[in-house]
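Exercise 3.2. Students should predict the tertiary structure of the chain below and write it as structure tokens, then compare their answer with the key that follows.

Predict this chain's 3D structure.
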Amino acid sequence: MTPPEALAEYLAHLGVERGLSEHTLAAYRRDLERYLAFLTGRGITDLAAVSEAEVASYVEALRAGSDGGSALSPSSTNRAVVAVRGWHRFEVREGRAANDPAAAVRPAGGVKRLPKAISVDDVERLLDGASAADGVLGLRDRALVEVLYGTGARISEAIGLTVDDVELDRQAPSIHLFGKGRKERVVPVGSYAIDALEAYLVRGRPVLAGNGRGNAALFLNQRGNPLSRQSAWAVLQDAAARAKIGTHISPHTLRHSYATHLLAGGADVRVVQELLGHASVTTTQIYTLVTPDTLREVYAASHPRAL
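Answer key:
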């Protein structure tokens, strides 16, 4: 089997058996096609012939951009290393290679960056900005932003919701989110999001659905089709512009803000881990890191010689 054929089989494995999203698969494909081009440039036409030194050289090429591609940041380099390690591990498991040349090549321990969160006041301004859209779109946009901030959903999870995934029983309201690998989690939802969803479902979605041919998706565009990732992104950009929020706002900004505000309010990190759908608490713990501003505030409020 040629390396391109082996790559196609591995990507099919990731999509079918591992259930990775199209967005994640596209990232794997880009990283591994670059790796394949690197090996081809060195005259390697059999993955079983790759050595640990070649994998290490590829990592250095990513950092420096010496393979003809752009130099990658530490986090992007680490992502590419993970992709390469997974592919070689798969080749060994399938019996096409005796040894794993990438097993000892570890991702570099990069500097952990704090997620960017916005204040509660800015969230409220963003919600008001979403509501300011014209007619039924204002109802939809408000509901979308309330769901993103009220549940910590990834954008793919939010736009993948169907009407049946939302349970608005006032005694135990919840939303069923389907994360990476279609892993389901049930997340409680608050009264603000309930109100926004009910207004959208009663007065907004039926109008949008009337423009299409019938669709179970919760969030629809003006043609009655499921809202796309790009359109959902544009909803946030427009809302931020109306609210005059200078900070760059993305769907992940609201997810970060959700986690940060929960922890600031006293939530246990393991509870937040479950709500976010993180496989490991280590991923969630980045939200617990103390910022320089917090250090200064605590020092000013607590130390007798601070003022």
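Discussion points: Strands lie at 166-167, 174-178, 184-188. The two ends are 71 Å apart (CA to CA).
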